């Protein structure tokens, strides 16, 4: 069910940390050799040779991420989500945040609303890709819409597929605010929607 559409814009970019952490998760789960075979097939061997974790400001053509997601979907079917989920959690835990993000965190201690801080952080993080962020507050969390999603635009699937972003959002809320949430993607650009929509709800 996976295919790509709308590849005409070759300038589209995404975070380098997404494919980087997906490849790391693949090595952890299926081993170095199997990962090598897959990366060689799509001519992305260089992802395995990165010595340092890319920073959040580094970008890569979206095309490369889509190639990686597509081959994994072809080989592993829906189990592919395991790689992206793990990648999102690992990235949230390990990635170094730029100073601008740390400033938002410091400010947020004055206002004491993690949800509003998350909106600012999302806007800052998604700025390089021209992704717009909208947020509606709920009593026990928030709903956020992300236009021009850096994970899935250009893909066509039969269910929401932004597993990296879902676990990344949950992971950074845990890391930055020490709050446990469940994150569910309820609408997705890959399903033909105009935006991806995530429900971020406090765990009880
Ligand atoms: Zn999505």
Please write out the topology:
Blueprint: E1 3-4, E2 13-15, H1 17-30, H2 32-41, E3 59-61, H3 62-76, H4 80-94, H5 99-111, H6 114-126, E4 133-138, E5 141-146, E6 155-156, H7 163-177, E7 181-187, E8 196-202
Antiparallel strand pairs: 1-6, 2-3, 4-5, 5-8, 7-8
The site of zinc ion (ZN) has 10 residues, from loops.
Can you describe this structure in just a few lines?
This protein is α+β, with helices and mostly antiparallel strands and 204 residues long. The protein has 7 helices and 8 strands, in the order ββααβααααβββαββ.
Overall structural domain count? 1
Q: Find the count of extended strands (DSSP E, 2+ residues).
A: 8
Going by CATH, the homologous superfamily would be: H-NOX domain
The span between the termini is 35 Å
Would you mind describing this structure in some detail?
Helices cover 47% and strands 18% of the residues. The protein is an alpha+beta fold and 204 residues long. A four-stranded antiparallel β-sheet has the order 4-5-8-7, covered by helices on one side. Strands 1-6 form a two-stranded antiparallel ribbon. The chain has a two-stranded antiparallel ribbon with strand order 2-3. α1 packs across α4. The structure holds zinc ion. Zinc ion (ZN) binds next to loops.
Entry keywords:
204 residues; alpha+beta; H-NOX domain; two-stranded antiparallel ribbon; 8 strands; binds zinc ion
């Amino acid at each position: 069910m996976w295919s790509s559409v709308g590849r005409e814009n070759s300038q589209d970019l995404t975070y380098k940390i997404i494919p980087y952490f997906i490849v790391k998760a693949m090595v952890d789960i299926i081993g170095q050799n199997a990962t090598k075979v897959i990366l060689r097939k799509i001519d992305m061997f260089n992802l395995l040779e990165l010595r340092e974790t890319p920073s959040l400001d580094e970008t890569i053509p979206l095309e490369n991420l889509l190639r990686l997601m597509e081959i994994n979907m072809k080989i592993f079917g829906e189990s592919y989500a395991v790689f992206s989920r793990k990648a999102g959690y690992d990235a949230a835990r390990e990635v170094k945040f730029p100073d601008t993000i740390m400033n938002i965190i410091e400010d947020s201690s004055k206002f004491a609303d993690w949800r509003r801080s998350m909106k600012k952080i999302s806007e800052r993080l998604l700025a390089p890709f021209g992704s717009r962020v909208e947020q509606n507050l709920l009593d026990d969390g928030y709903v956020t819409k992300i236009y021009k999603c850096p994970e899935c635009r250009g893909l066509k699937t039969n269910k929401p597929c932004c597993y990296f972003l879902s676990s990344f959002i949950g992971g950074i809320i845990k890391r930055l605010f020490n709050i446990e949430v469940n994150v569910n993607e309820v609408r997705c650009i890959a399903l033909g929607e105009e935006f991806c929509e995530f429900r971020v709800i406090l765990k009880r």
